[in-house]
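Backbone geometry:

***
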Amino acid sequence: MKTSITALALLITLALLIVESSYQQVFSNVSGAPAARTGSPFDSGGIACNASGCHTSFPLGSRPGWITSNIPGTGYVAGQTYTITATAISSASCIRFGFEISAQTASGTTAGTAIITNATTTKFALTTSTRWVTHTLTGSSASSTPGTKTWSYNWTAPASGTGTVTFYGAFNRANNSNSVIGDSIFLSQLVVPESTTGILDAVDDSWFSVYPVPALNNIFIHLNLDNNSPHQIELTDIAGKIIRTVADNKMSSSQGNTIEVNTAGINPGIYFIRLIHDSSVTVKKIIIL
């Protein structure tokens, strides 16, 4: 009888250790994804956060447009610093998200330098490397913005001649159950070319702003151009399809500095405001609720 009780106690202890280990792993992931889980073919063979033993409840999904930046369409300029934005979207009931992003060259080496600008919500997956940016424990919560979560950090472009850079990202749309069960993992990519001129891209685009973000009923586009040359403004979806032409190429900046766009009838989601001015194309990401 004593032997049976001892064996039972050992089994209970072992079960508690397994549960504690599982909880610690989940808590660790809430505090930041493990390194090399972006889905990049150069990161551990392309695994993401749905690797065996982790978030495997659903098949791996894909969400284009969840990684955006203020890098002009003509490409990045070596040494220039840009803002990289990650945005996850779900139903309004979702209040827990996670992400990990890595900028890599065509050969898989780290491209440029990531810079943490908000240590409360983002951090490096490894303290010894800037290759992977992920969320913090505080940064995983979307209780103040149910259904969507946005993170951002800065990125300094690599040396001239690096070529096209791909930002590989994995996102976790979690059910906040303190376990790996029931979460959905999605991949997203942002591919940016290297500028061939380095002139237009280096221009400060503070003369073009869009607010508020997120927007509910109206979006305001503010222009502060230094000449009256014609420009065109378009509202596009994440696939680049023009949803609405806000201003045609006959409009000049002298006709008004602020343009109001009514978003009634547009489905909630991620969109872009694209400004075509002279030979320059500048894009701003917006979120319509």
Observations:
- The chain has two domains: 31-192, 204-288.
- The CA atoms of residues 124 and 133 lie 5 Å apart.
- Residues 11-28, 198-204 have pLDDT under 50 and may be disordered.
